[in-house]
Amino acid sequence: MSDAVLFADWPAPPNVTAGTTTRHGGAADLPATPQYLIQVHGKHVVQLGSSDCASAEPEGDAVFGNQPGDICVVRTADCLPVLLCARDGSEIAAVHAGWRGLAAGVIDATVERMATDSSDLLAWIGPAIAQASFEVGGEVREAFCAAGFDAEKRFTANERGRWQADLFGLAADRLQTIGVTAVYGERLCTFDNPERFFSYRRDGQTGRLLSFICRQ
Prior knowledge:
This protein has helices at about 100-105, 105-115, 140-145, 165-175, 200-205, and strands at about 5, 15-20, 45, 60-65, 70-75, 80-85, 90-95, 120-125, 135, 155, 165, 180-185, 210-215. By secondary structure, the protein is of the alpha+beta class.
């Protein structure tokens, strides 16, 4: 395994390459120059090659494309990166799913913009902060419950009267709900792996991991 890139372990078609750079790698390790986004923890979705990309860095928290040579990238340092591809390799997407965007429906919005039926999509969830390290207030749990998530099973009360949130589980549940049943990923924790990953909650000022997917 490369020290610079963690490649996605999933049954993607041969024309799709995906993964996450570690703290030992960056943009130089990507197969092409990507379209970066100004990420705002929302649910706006950008389409490559469209008027969505009129500016150098359009605002959005997800990006998708369907042309050879397309590369979709999101930047994270504890938030959840979700990569999607069609089983036939015709369409790809990258989603930045922090808790706000996840609760707002950024995964749903991305799948809705894609031409591929949800049942024909594969999903890979990259490194993010794991439940044991992600303490949140009750307002976070309430936001997911209000958004229609089956959230109770993904939040565990701690001795401080707060909650440990399982972003991986929340995202996997949402993908299943909207019909994306082929979900992969190792649940690698950014917070607990300082030698490999950046973590905003652990370090404050820090770099960003690049989760990428490209179509040949």
